[in-house]
Amino acid sequence: MKRSPLHDRHESLSARLLPFAGWEMPIQYEGIVAEHRAVRESVGVFDISHMGELVVSGEESEAGLNRLLTNDLSVLGVGEGQYTLMLNEHGGVIDDLIVYRTGPDRFFLVVNASKIEEDVAWFETHLPTGIALENRSEDYGALAVQGPDAVALWERLEAEKTLPSKNGIAEYEGGLILCRTGYTGEDGFELFAPTKAIGDWFDRILAAGARPCGLGARDTLRLEKGFPLNGSDLDGEHTPLEAGLGFFVKLDKESGFIGSGVLARQKSEGLKVRLVAIAMTGKAPPPRHGYEVRDEEGETVPGVLTSGSLSPGLGLGIGMAYLPVAKAKLGTPLSIMVRERPFPARVVKKPFV
Predict the structure, then answer these.
(1) CATH fold for domain 53-127
(2) Tens digits of per-residue pLDDT, 233-264?
(3) Dist. CA 217–CA 221, nearest whole Å
């Protein structure tokens, strides 16, 4: 397994390290619930050095990327970014990613750790000749600083280096890159720096008051907000429309994009399945990925949880699943099979919190 440039620091902080997307990463430090609450109430810092960073440049880079991604890059000014998805020919999701325009013909892409090699191969195959693609994933370490106190922390730490506005990007000397997105539903920023420098940034951010947080809390935070996880809630068999991400799909782009024909037909004919939010309605063990979903009479829906966890904010089990449209209406009673026992649940509105 690969190791983060912060690996020794995680060990010194007594982090629990487990495999994730081919990396040995911290799942928790003092505990998922405490770390979850720190991000909701103050500020936490996550090591996201496993994420991939790609740079695409060249005169036709905007047009080339626009034919591969669902959102519309033409609306981005320099210093702006957007969430988007890359699809296969059947409309299924290869990866969901963030794209930032860093120059008139230059883009910085942040991709999922488990998809770096697949994404690079897809881009190399489908981008037109003359567009340069650089895989910079080995060059950067990265941190996500999240929570209502994140901005104040940064202003105490580096008053002269201004954070970008929401969904923006700013580049500074020494290879420092600051982005303003997030995967927790709270305010915050992402910091990318050369691997040799990321340790100092981590130390400074901790010293400024951030609590170290693992990927366990990152998962419960994003799930409470209904944010999908690639490889679980997003996959090559389901489209962004089925996943409820239609806002990030621009079917009116002149160029179209790979998979757009399938999505146009779905929009015209109607969806057969939808990714819905599910909340347990009684005392039950926490639901987990892969648990079977049945109707209230105990008949198979069919469906399985794509994500599931105990919500620290709500104190009950929550999850998501692709269900037939007839079973996807708000309030629909369901049951979740936990160790071969049914527990009551219902379809609820996203986000949970």
Answers:
(1) Alpha-Beta Plaits (3.30.70)
(2) 999 999 999 999 999 999 999 889 999 999 99
(3) 6
